[in-house]
Amino acid sequence: xxxxxxxxxxxxxxxxxxxxxxxxxxxxxxxxxxxxxxxxxxxxxxxxxxxxxxxxxxxxxxxxxxxxxxxxxxxxxxxxxxxxxxxxxxxxxxxxxxxxxxxxxxxxxxxxxxxxxxxxxxxxxxxxxxxxxxxxxxxxxxxxxxxxxxxxxxxxxxxxxxxxxxxxxxxxxxxxxxxxxxxxxxxxxxxxxxxxxxxxxxxxxxxxxxxxxxxxxxxxxxxxxx
Length: 226
Fold this sequence. Notes:
Organism: Necator americanus (Human hookworm)
Protein name: Glypican
Family: Belongs to the glypican family.
Structural class: mainly alpha
GO biological process, one term: positive regulation of canonical Wnt signaling pathway
Radius of gyration: 33 Å
Oligomer: single chain
Shape: rod-shaped
Pfam families: Glypican
Strand content: under 5%
């Protein structure tokens, strides 16, 4: 059996109790310290290679699905934006078309919201949309008057009391917030998992897999015990 092994057995001792061995222990062993060290090194290399292969496959799978989910999210927002733009364009004509940039900004903020680095809130995004709409409506009803920054601030301060849109802002926020927050957490979770796996691959080997009996291949342990 030993002649079929690639380990150097020329210095093997006679079978007897192990005194300086950590893995090949027992009353009747045929290993030397050098052979045991070589077994440990080979076992670690094999374990690391298999583990890294699994991590690479898992990381690729997560990244592929993460990109698919993000693409689906952005495409869904684009479809909503296009349909809303078409509907408002037909309904309000040039009044909407000349001020459609506020909806462009609104959807851009929703896209940015999905980023794990964004600290914006859905109520803030929808509130900003209706504030901009309120100011534009005031300008349309007073075409000869240009709203200054001070007057804009005054309009927004009076907006809760005037309630120009009724309970529509609250309803829009209610319907948007829960699915968008759930979606953001889901995508952020996948993103964090990918980063953890990516970080693991960059950990120095000395810190990633210390020498320990747990990483030895059972077949090599059995061989070491004769």
